[in-house]
Amino acid sequence: MSIYVVANMKVLDPSFLEPYGAIAGPLVKQYGGEYVAMSAAPEIVEGDWPAGFQTIVLRWPSREAFRAFWDSPEYARAKEIRKGKVILNNVILEDAG
């Protein structure tokens, strides 16, 4: 069953973006993930949404595929690159289908 990972990210120091993306982007694809949506300024329909946060949605073929990516030694390097340079919140959502 597919899952979705929704991330809210506030960049504190943009110097990490290029080296992080160079690692994370290919790894997402390698582990079967795909970027579904991104918005630097999502349209708020109701309620509050964290100001200054970018929203990113990724689809994964399974929770196991996501966990293999998330726990991989290669992605550990990417997480280290972004450390202290971003506020990041991630949640996993089950596919409703």
Number of strands: 4
Structural class: alpha+beta
- Biggest sheet features: 4 strands, antiparallel
Q: Kindly state the mean pLDDT as a whole number?
A: 95
CATH topology descriptor = Alpha-Beta Plaits
In the CATH hierarchy, the architecture is 2-Layer Sandwich
* Number of H/I helices: 3
Poorly predicted ranges (pLDDT <50, ≥5 residues)?
A: none
Helix % is 25-40%
**Order of the strands making up the biggest sheet:** 2-3-1-4
> Over the alpha carbons, how many angstroms does the gyration radius reach?
14 Å
The best one-word shape is flat
Q: How many angstroms does the end-to-end distance come to?
A: 9 Å
Under CATH at level 1, the class stands as Alpha Beta
How many domain regions?
Answer: 1
Q: Which percent range describes the beta-strand content?
A: 25-35%
Taken in chain order, the helices and strands follow as EHEEHHE
